[in-house]
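Case 360 in the screening queue. Each case pairs one protein sequence with one candidate compound; here the compound is phosphoenolpyruvate. For every case the pipeline is the same: read the inputs, emit a complex structure as tokens, and attach any notable structural observations.

Predict complex for case 360.
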Amino acid sequence: MDNLQPLFPTVDSTKPIIIAGPCSAETEQQVLETARGLAANGIKIFRAGIWKPRTHPGGFEGVGEAGLAWLAKVKEETGMLTATEVANSQHVALALEARVDALWIGARTSANPFAMQEIADALAAAGRDVPVLVKNPVNPDLELWIGAMQRIYNAGIRRIGAIHRGFSAYGRHLYRNLPQWRIPIELRRRFPELPVFCDPSHIGGKRELIAPISQQALDMSFSGLIIESHCDPDCAWSDKTQQITPEVLNFILHTLVLRDKSTSTESLALLRQQIDRIDDELLELLDKRMRVAREIGHYKQEHSMPVIQAGRYNDLMQRRVATAEEMGMSPDFMRSVLAAIHEESVRQQIEIVNGHPLEK
Ligand code: PEP
Ligand code: MN
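Case 360 output:
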């Protein structure tokens, strides 16, 4: 995805870009009242879902086409840009015809390559360079997310952004959708020019989590936030536990700390050199460890011993995790580091014992 163009050229992007508005457009009055509150607080991009993908039939599935006229009124009255969710070619055609300024693709849709291709084809047919924001698929699959954006890119769209809205997981958790930050971080490593927004409303699922999640995203230099805001959240027809009034949103935005990207990075450069050196040392140590593991592999082969001895692995894991915890590192982190190192040792030993590489 080369040559991406600024998503919203008329909006100041030296600061995080804020998109806000209700989960769903419900009535003309609710849309306009919310939009007025947001515009009064300086919000430049208004979101509202009019086609809502619901888990169960019978839930509120959005007002549909009627909402397009309300979005047009928002634009006319407040000057805000408007954005809505599209999930098929008909939505794309209708939204573009109604001059909606930006489209987003929901998490259930971006998980479906057929739907993504249908949307991409509709965009190509329309030939308009409208900004398209692609939410991560519901499941934590970075390639599926990237593939969804590539389809949009291949349709000729150059104003593409990603939205991190967390990943669904079975059972009850603190978050409605687990953030799994390493996935958007890896996305940004692979596509440094791609703007990535954070959606703290759908990650947290609760009003009180919006501020802390937003702060984390800003600390990681996300390009912006998309936050659900409703003039009367307790009476919202969808996602009411996570919507906040424009006033509360304004308060939160003022409490967020914007890290200054332009401050001198000299002392940072020195610290980064240290990190580079330590990483080199880590690599050398890992190489040393693998060599010993291979020697053990030869020994096991000569004595016809099995490669994996579960007792030893468990014991090693428990001791190292406990030490790491004492040092202030998270046990989960240490478990995944050790599991990865162990997996590679086993792979190398099996290659020695079998005389050929382990099938992936
Ligand atoms: C939404 O933005 O209201 C929405 C339906 O989000 P998601 O696709 O992330 O669930
Ligand atoms: Mn919602």
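Case 360 observations:
- The first strand starts at residue 17 and ends at 21.
- The pocket of phosphoenolpyruvate (ligand 1) is lined by residues 23, 49, 106-107, 135, 165, 202 (CB under 6 Å).
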